[in-house]
């Protein structure tokens, strides 16, 4: 075992070997995961990729490269050769780099291989919070301005988008946004009572909700969620949410633009097969993710729509560093 | 009762037993190499064990974790390069012992005490997990902040010599920790618009440079000096020695379990706090601290291994990781179709007891592998300096590169190595720098969370401290420790008690 482990370690270090490519893949493929080990993106990528390896008949060595909201990983892949031997395994964050002043590149420099799944945002509350539903929370905020503590994960994160959505739809909510490193630490703080409510991706909160350690208030979707069928949906609470929903973080595998077409085809076929794998699908269901498994034009269209909606929502909320206009991101519907 | 039998699952399947053993063995060596971390090894194992059953995969990971936490002490004692951040305190007294020819004894004591600490951690996990996790959840941002302040006060016990220089070094460490994009607002801090600074400075690179490279440079000065002959007759510590340190090790193990169970703090902070505790309660050590005091080995090593059991407590009871390694293990459980969360212990108690059993087994393997092969290891210190110095440099470079596969980290590491050399030269202690880097984020993030939660109102902030028993205890401890370190206190003590006794 330890020899194999050493092999893996060495492979991580010496991934850039010279190749004389006849058929793809002729050598190990490097998969750069934008987020840390154990996180959602990491779990999804490490679950789907072994199935893709089987379909592809090659090896994908995955490596976590964290930092700067994933920009370090993105820049690494942008700087690599467009030969299909360096994959970017990421989440939605790069779509906002330009307007948040986090970088000069986003997924427009990439060709989507597969957009695997998307998450559904869920608003949860501490069990001892003095309200049990979304309307109750709004009433509480109105009566106690500046008292409710809402978890956040920094500008551009899921909570900031959901909060901006709520402020746009319901009018400015006077709450305290307490920033955390990610939804994991924030949900821990929610259970300890350090914050009262938190918008989080359903998969991260579901186990706590099932155990009765937190109260679900609202599912940010246009249709009831199969995992939490009894929880109110946003468009029922306020029809104006329909402008922005469905919305959610997503996971995708990308290669740099300019990668040879046959390589893109081979990878797309492999990941499309992998995403249909039963084990993977049931894992995603269990974590409350909605499978997408889209590629090509369909994926590009999804990305464009996602970026337009989110960028302008954040810009209208005054959270951006630069206007989406500067980067040619059109307002949705224009 | 039937579920309790799951604790023995490891022994009923020879394959599992072997995997725990192999994992522990590999863990010791991965832990010993600076830069190769347990976190990294476990995350590689996730893909590696993907197609396995869940029990073998967990067995291997548990073994690596237990062995790795212990392994960090090896290079700390022999080469003065902590193999992992949790072994920083071990280097402070372990290396001086090796320099006196007692490397074998130091490793022996470390091994037995790591075993003891590990055992306490596992026992607490097995018997009191729900209570401890409930307690850990009550820590609010202000409590984490107070804990970090308490940690900063360790500067006093980590700096031999000038306290002023120690404070400078600590502050420097905090500044290093603040470099990069602030994770809460993404604002750039101390980056000077350089792209490479955006991601911050790798803390492991700083540690390896400060300890490893600066040590190599230091040794260059006496490259022709004969190396110390090692006595290897006393490896397994006598029963008397163990009994002597039993009370201390119980206290430091408790520190380890609690700090380990807190989400957001881990073995590194636990070990440093335990070292400080040992220094405080040991009135008359046989050898002064920093020159090879046995207590200085016992405290951090019991604490960091006790923190392993501690880290599993919130993971098993709530699905909340106690540290980076348990965070990855939660991911691994997901991949294997389990849903780690508050329901895991209710739905699948077998899993909980299996992990307890695997941890116990790994702990025993750690003792066995740790106590064998010490003779060969101590030979490392006996090697001529002309071989050992290049070896240290090589290890440092490989280690720094391995953390993120980034050559930038190697440059940082070398830069901090040279800087650390000059710091040593002018009598600035290096321990506080690392302490500062470790605590920087904990202090900064939680202070801001705490004050934002109170609508940036200091009055409400202090009201919160006074009305919460936990915060109050931490706050009073901070004040007491702070005052006890000032000259004012010594003067007052002399006036109050000095007169009475004479």
Could you write a compact summary of the structure shown?
The complex is a heterodimer of chains A (334) and B (502). Chain A has 334 residues and is α/β, with parallel strands linked by helices. Chain A is built from 12 helices and 11 strands.
Describe the structure.
Chain A: Keywords: Receptor, Signal. Chain A: Belongs to the UPF0065 (bug) family. The complex is a heterodimer of chains A (334) and B (502). With 334 residues, chain A is an alpha/beta fold. Chain A folds into two domains: 3-117 and 248-297, 3-Layer(aba) Sandwich (D-Maltodextrin-Binding Protein, domain 2); 121-243, Periplasmic binding protein-like II (D-Maltodextrin-Binding Protein, domain 2, 3-Layer(aba) Sandwich). Chain A is built from twelve helices and eleven strands. In chain A, helix 6 links the parallel strand 6 and strand 7 (176-179). The mean pLDDT of chain B is 86. Chain B has 502 residues and is an all-alpha fold. Chain B is built from 23 helices and two strands. Chain B has a two-stranded antiparallel sheet. Among the domains of chain B are: 2-139 and 235-403, no CATH class; 465-502, no CATH class. Chain B is globular. The interface between A and B is large, with 60 and 62 residues.
CATH fold-level assignment of the largest domain in chain A: D-Maltodextrin-Binding Protein, domain 2
Radius of gyration of chain B: 22 Å
Number of helices of chain A: 12
Low-pLDDT residue spans of chain A: 10-21
Low-confidence stretches of chain B: none
Query: What is the terminal separation of chain A in angstroms?
Result: 57 Å
Placed side by side, the strands forming the largest sheet of chain A appear as 2-1-3-10-4-11
Largest sheet of chain A: 6 strands, mixed
Largest interface summary: A-B, 60 and 62 residues
Structural class, from secondary structure content of chain B?
mainly alpha
Strand and helix map with partners:
The complex is a heterodimer of chains A (334) and B (502).
Chain A (H helix, E strand, L loop, with lengths): L1 H12 L15 E5 L6 H17 L3 E5 L6 H9 L6 E5 L6 H4 L9 E9 L2 E6 L7 H10 L5 E4 L5 H13 L5 E4 L3 H10 L4 E5 H9 L3 E6 L14 H4 L12 E7 L4 H14 L3 H9 L3 E5 L1 H21 L18
Parallel strand pairs in A: 1-2, 1-3, 6-7
Antiparallel strand pairs in A: 3-10, 4-10, 4-11, 5-8, 5-9
Helix pairs in contact in A: 2-10, 6-12
Chain B lengths: L8 H4 L1 H19 L5 H11 L5 H26 L8 H12 L3 H35 L3 H12 L2 H4 L4 H16 L1 E2 L6 E2 L13 H18 L18 H23 L5 H15 L13 H24 L5 H12 L8 H4 L1 H23 L2 H9 L2 H20 L2 H19 L5 H23 L4 H10 L1 H17 L1 H15 L1
Antiparallel strand pairs in B: 1-2
Helix pairs in contact in B: 2-4, 2-16, 3-4, 3-14, 4-5, 4-6, 4-13, 4-14, 4-16, 5-6, 5-13, 6-11, 6-13, 6-16, 6-17, 7-20, 7-22, 9-20, 10-18, 10-19, 11-12, 11-13, 12-13, 18-19, 21-22
């Amino acid at each position: 075992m330890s020899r194999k482990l050493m092999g893996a370690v060495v492979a991580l270090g010496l991934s850039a070997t010279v190749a004389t490519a006849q058929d793809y893949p002729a050598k190990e493929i490097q998969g750069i995961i934008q987020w840390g080990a154990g996180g959602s993106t990491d779990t999804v990528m490490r679950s789907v990729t072994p199935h893709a390896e089987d379909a592809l008949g090659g090896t994908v060595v995955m490596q976590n490269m964290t930092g700067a909201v994933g920009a370090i990983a993105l820049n690494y892949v942008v700087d690599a050769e467009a030969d299909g031997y360096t994959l970017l395994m990421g989440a939605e964050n790069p779509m906002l780099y330009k307007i948040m002043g986090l970088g000069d590149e986003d997924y427009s420099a990439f060709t989507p291989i597969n957009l695997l799944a998307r998450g559904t945002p869920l608003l949860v509350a501490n069990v001892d919070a003095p309200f049990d539903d979304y309307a109750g929370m709004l009433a509480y905020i109105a009566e106690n301005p500046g008292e409710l503590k809402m978890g956040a994960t920094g500008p551009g994160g899921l909570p900031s988008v959901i909060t901006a959505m709520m402020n746009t739809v319901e009018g400015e909510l006077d709450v305290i946004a307490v920033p955390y490193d990610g939804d994991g630490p924030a949900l821990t703080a929610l259970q300890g009572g350090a914050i009262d409510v938190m918008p989080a991706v359903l998969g991260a909160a579901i186990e706590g909700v099932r155990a009765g350690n937190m109260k679900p208030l609202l599912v940010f979707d246009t249709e009831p969620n199969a995992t939490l069928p009894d929880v109110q949906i946003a468009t029922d609470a306020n029809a104006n949410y329909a402008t922005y929903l469905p919305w959610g973080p997503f996971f995708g595998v990308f290669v740099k633009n300019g990668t040879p077409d046959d390589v893109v085809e081979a990878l797309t076929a492999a990941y499309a097969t992998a995403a249909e794998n039963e084990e993977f699908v049931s894992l995603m269901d269990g974590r409350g993710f909605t499978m997408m498994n889209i590629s090509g034009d369909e994926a590009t269209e999804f990305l464009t729509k996602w970026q337009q909606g989110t960028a302008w929502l954040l810009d209208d909320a005054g959270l951006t560093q630069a206007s989406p206009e500067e980067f040619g991101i059109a307002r949705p519907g224009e | 009762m039937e579920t309790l039998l799951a604790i023995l699952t490891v022994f009923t399947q020879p394959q599992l037993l072997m995997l725990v053993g192999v994992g522990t063995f590999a863990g010791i060596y991965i832990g010993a190499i600076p830069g190769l971390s347990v976190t990294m090894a476990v995350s590689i194992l996730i893909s590696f064990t993907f197609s396995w059953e869940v029990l073998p995969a967990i067995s291997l990971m548990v073994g690596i974790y237990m062995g790795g936490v212990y392994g960090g002490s090896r290079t700390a004692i022999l080469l003065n390069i902590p193999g992992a951040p949790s072994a920083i305190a071990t280097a402070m007294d372990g290396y001086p012992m090796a320099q006196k020819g007692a490397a074998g004894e130091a490793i022996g004591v470390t091994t037995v005490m790591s075993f003891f600490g590990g055992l306490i951690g596992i026992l607490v996990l097995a018997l009191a997990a729900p209570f401890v996790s409930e307690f850990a959840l009550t820590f609010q941002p202000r409590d984490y902040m107070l804990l970090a302040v308490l940690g900063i006060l360790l500067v006093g016990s980590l700096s031999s010599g000038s306290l002023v220089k120690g404070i400078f070094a600590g502050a420097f460490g905090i500044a290093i920790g603040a470099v990069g994009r602030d994770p809460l607002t993404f604002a750039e801090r101390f980056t000077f618009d350089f792209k490479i600074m955006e991601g911050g400075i790798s803390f492991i690179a700083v540690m390896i440079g400060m300890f490893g490279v600066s040590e190599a440079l230091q040794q260059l000065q006496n490259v022709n000096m004969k190396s110390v002959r090692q006595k290897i007759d006393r490896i397994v510590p006598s029963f008397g020695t163990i009994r002597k340190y039993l009370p201390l090790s119980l206290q430091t193990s408790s520190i380890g379990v609690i700090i380990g169970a807190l989400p957001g703090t881990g073995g590194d902070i636990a070990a440093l706090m335990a070292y400080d505790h040992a220094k405080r309660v040991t009135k008359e050590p046989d050898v002064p601290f920093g020159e090879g005091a046995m207590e200085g080995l016992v405290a951090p090593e019991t604490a960091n291994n006790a923190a392993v059991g501690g880290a599993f407590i919130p993971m098993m009871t709530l699905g909340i990781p106690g540290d980076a390694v348990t965070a990855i293990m939660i991911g691994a459980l997901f991949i294997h179709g389990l849903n780690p969360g508050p329901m895991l212990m209710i739905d699948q108690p077998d899993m909980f007891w299996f992990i307890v059993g695997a941890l116990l087994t790994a702990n025993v393997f750690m003792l066995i592998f740790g106590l064998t092969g010490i003779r060969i290891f101590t030979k490392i210190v006996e090697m001529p300096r002309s071989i050992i110095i290049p070896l240290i440099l090589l290890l440092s470079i490989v280690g720094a590169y391995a953390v993120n596969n980034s050559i930038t980290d190697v440059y940082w590491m070398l830069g901090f190595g040279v800087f650390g050399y000059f710091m040593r030269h002018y009598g600035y202690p290096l321990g506080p720098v690392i302490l500062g880097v470790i605590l920087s984020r904990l202090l900064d993030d939680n202070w801001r969370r705490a004050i934002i939660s109170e609508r940036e109102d200091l009055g409400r902030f202090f009201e919160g401290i006074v009305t919460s028993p936990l915060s109050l205890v931490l706050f009073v401890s901070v004040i007491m420790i702070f005052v006890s370190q000032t000259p004012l206190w010594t003067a007052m003590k002399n006036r109050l008690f000095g007169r009475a006794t004479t």
